[in-house]
Amino acid sequence: MSTLVIYSTLTGNTRKIAEAIYEVISGEKKIADVKDIINIDKLEKYDKIIFGYWVDKGDADERIKKIMEKVKNKTVGAFGTLGAEPESEHAKKCMEKVKEFLEKNGNKVEREFICRGAIDPKLLDKFRKIGMSGHHASTPENERRWAEAAKHPDENDCENAKKIFKGF
To answer: Which of 14, 95, 116, 127 has the fewest C-beta atoms lying within 10 Å of its C-beta?
Structure first.
């Protein structure tokens, strides 16, 4: 059984989680690869694929979605990183969108995971400069949330991802 852990990353957060998942899968003596989407080749040679994404506008980023849409009728897993709390409604809705997207091509989503990750500093600068409103406004509460997100993914996040994907 061969497994691919494929990920898209903007700040390195998703790569960190991908490498943790790869560590647990490859340690189980399975044939496994971990690749950034820029290094992807033949997806059909893998029995299982685990997709890693960063959340963009409440969904998986477009680069990984282009790869996801090519995969049909496989057992898959998905994991993501985002600036919000992983227990939030925002995170749950994002995971549900990703699951539905993968299932529409006949894939069976066997495992899912999401955790906090640092937000791209360029994006935070944009939020602050153009005076975003609502969820992205530069309020004291959001500044606190963004500072907390900057500490992730941490070792605990990596260990939690390993637990979820162990045995995949």
So the answer is: 127
- Domains along the chain? 2-117+153-165 (3.40.50.360), 119-151 (no CATH)
pLDDT digits (tens, 9 = 90+) for 157-167: 999 999 999 99
Dist. CA 11–CA 146, nearest whole Å: 14
Report the alpha-carbon distance of residue 106 to residue 7 in Å, rounded: 21
> Residue 122: how many CB atoms within 10 A of its CB?
9
**What are the phi and psi torsion angles at 120 (to 5°)?**
-55, 125
The whole-model pTM stands at 0.91
Q: Measuring CA to CA, which residue among 112, 117, 115, 111 is closest to residue 148?
A: 117
Q: pLDDT tens-digit profile of 5-60?
A: 999 999 999 999 999 999 999 876 666 677 767 667 788 888 999 999 999 999 99
- Convert 147-166 to b/e letters by CB count within 10 Å (16 or more is b): eebeebbeeebbebbbebbe
